[in-house]
Design a protein that fits this description.
2 domains
């Protein structure tokens, strides 16, 4: 019977001899060479990996649920917040009259958020679905991009029959924000659960 230390050394020798880079490769080769059950080998390999004595790629797992299930159950709270804030802002813009004093403040706050933050945030989220940016960078970039995007839409709408009016601007910004939120959510799903590579 092979001792634990001896077995660990043999696994390390196999890694060096065969230049294995993944746990799966090492498991197959070690099983053939040492005639030890895969479960026992896997326990030792994972322990060596945890101790930092070896460094191998772990197999990537595909999502336990589809994109549709991820959309409804996957915990994409940021996505639902954007949808909720965007639609609430749009409704407040169209439904709250100018002379309704205390309620008009909600329209100003939601409208400012809708114009100055949400378009840029959805664009940043679509461009950087991973955590490459910290929260402060993401917020500042969202504000800056929103300040750049809204005038461009205004300029483009100026050359359409609708012109620069409240309804077309609101609908264009709403469509842009929701579309980019969907793109960001799909990209986040693909980043979290990459497709397994074909072998």
């Amino acid at each position: 019977m092979t001792g634990k230390k001896e077995l660990e050394e043999k696994l390390i020798e196999i890694i060096e001899a065969f230049s294995t880079s993944t746990v799966k490769e090492l498991l197959e080769i070690a099983h053939l060479q040492l005639s030890i059950p895969k479960k026992e080998l896997l326990d030792i390999i994972l322990r060596l990996q945890d101790e930092g004595r070896i460094s191998l790629k772990l197999p990537e797992k595909r999502a336990k649920y589809s994109l549709r299930e991820y959309f409804f159950k996957g915990g994409v709270y940021w996505f639902w917040c954007i949808i909720l804030l965007s639609t609430t802002a749009m409704l407040s813009i169209f439904l709250i009259p100018e002379d309704a004093y205390p309620i008009i403040l909600a329209r100003y706050v939601l409208g400012s958020l809708f114009v100055l933050f949400l378009p840029g945030f959805s664009l940043v989220k679509a461009l950087f679905p991973k955590k490459e940016l910290d929260n402060v960078e993401r917020m500042v970039l969202s504000l800056g991009l929103s300040l750049a995007i809204v005038p461009i839409f205004g300029l483009l709408l100026n050359y359409t029959p609708w012109g620069i009016r409240l309804t077309p601007i609101t609908l264009v910004l709403l469509s842009f924000t929701i579309f980019l939120s969907f793109v960001a959510m799909i990209r986040e799903y693909n980043e979290k659960f990459p497709k397994p590579e074909e072998e």
